[in-house]
Amino acid sequence: MNSVSVRILLVRGMLAGLAAGVLAFLFGYFVGEGSVDAAIAFEEANSHEHGGEELVSRSVQSTAGLATGVLVFGVAIGGIAALAFCFALGRIGRFGARATAALTALAGFLLVYLVPILKYPANPPAVGNPDTIGKRTMLFVLMIVLSVLLGIGAVLLGRRLAPAWGNWNASIAAGAAFVAAVAIAMVVLPHGDNTPKGFPATDLWEFRLASIGIQAVLWAAFGLLFGYLAERVLEPRSARGRVSTLAA
Amino acid sequence: MAQSTAAPTPTTQTLTPLPLREIAPWAVFVGVLMLVLLYFVGAEQGATALVSGEGVHEWVHDARHLLGFPCH
Q1: Which of the residues A68, A129, A135 would you substitute to probe the B interface, choosing the one with the greatest number of B C-beta atoms within 10 Å?
Q2: Which of A159, A243, B8, B63 is most buried, with most CB under 10 Å away?
Q3: Hey, which residues does A98 pair with through a beta bridge?
């Protein structure tokens, strides 16, 4: 195996991310846009300064704009996850290509999205004070970095304990250590919520659920598709499981 | 590269790890490029701005909200 396979895996990861982005866009368009529109309606009914001309119309924002953002995001996380997959392959235990890809995607969803948003949840338009955008962005990125580092630490801890404790107990210990460390970080970091008075709780809940859904669709589709594509590179033809001669 | 061991176990054999020195250059260059893409989707013309105006922010507005980034 040479660096050609890293390149091939990277390209396939980005393509899988692009395809996953298409599904996530469809989910976002059909499921998420309703709550975005509801939030914007609230914003317009409750603010006097926000009028003026629109730079990008709502119909473009909810179609081409949403698609651009989600597809670029899909390609980017696809590339990064493919690199993480290249690193994890054969290093995290006895897993084949598909299982490693699924675990990488699951770790990505948990560490890059789900754990950070438990502290700093996604907010629809009208929720969030523009004056604090810098602070909130910094805290959100900090939470992602912490979550990823603690996740990597937990994997290393688990691998280290595994020989003495067995995989099951080592995994439980590593998972518990991760949860405890994340909980401490969440208690220590300042809270970032500033929902305006009167904002409908149902809209907020539906928006956040849609946000979780769009990310879940993206990561799940990426993990499954990339697993399939990676397996075809790494375990050619009928020799699934017999890892050997990928043309040098 | 293929070292055939005496007892191959067809379904559970662990894949050979890819050497770190072959992952590293891709990780550095492509990894940074991907982070730049994430920055433009997630934070440009929000917390900080490399390009002036509101065009990028407004164009990816809905994606930024729905993907969970603080938008404004």
Answers
A1: A68
A2: B63
A3: none
- pLDDT (tens digit, 9 = 90+) per residue, A20-76? 999 999 999 999 999 999 999 998 888 765 555 678 898 999 999 999 999 999 999
Are B12 and A123 a contacting pair at CB < 8 A? no
Q: Are residues A8 and A118 in the same domain?
A: yes
pLDDT digits 0-9 by tens, A199-242: 999 999 999 999 999 999 999 999 999 999 999 999 876 555 44
Q: Scan for tokens 């979550």, then name that residue.
A: A147
Instruction: Give me the DSSP letters along A101-150.
Output: HHHHHHHHIIIIIIHHHHHS----TTSS-GGGHHHHHHHHHHHHHHHHHH
A88 and A25 in a single domain? The answer is yes
Whether residue B5 lies inside any domain: the answer is no
Report the chain B residue with the minimal C-alpha distance to residue A77.
B34
Residue A99 sits in which domain range? 1-127+198-248
Alpha-carbon distance B63 to nearest alpha carbon in chain A (angstroms) = 5
List, for residues A161-189, the tens digit of each pLDDT value: 999 999 999 999 999 999 999 999 999 99
Q: What is the ipTM of this complex?
A: 0.89
Angle subtended at Cα A26 by Cα A21 and Cα A27, rounded to the nearest 5 degrees: 95
| Residues of chain B contacting A190 with CB distance shorter than 8 Å | none
The reply to whether A108 and A2 lie within a common domain is: yes
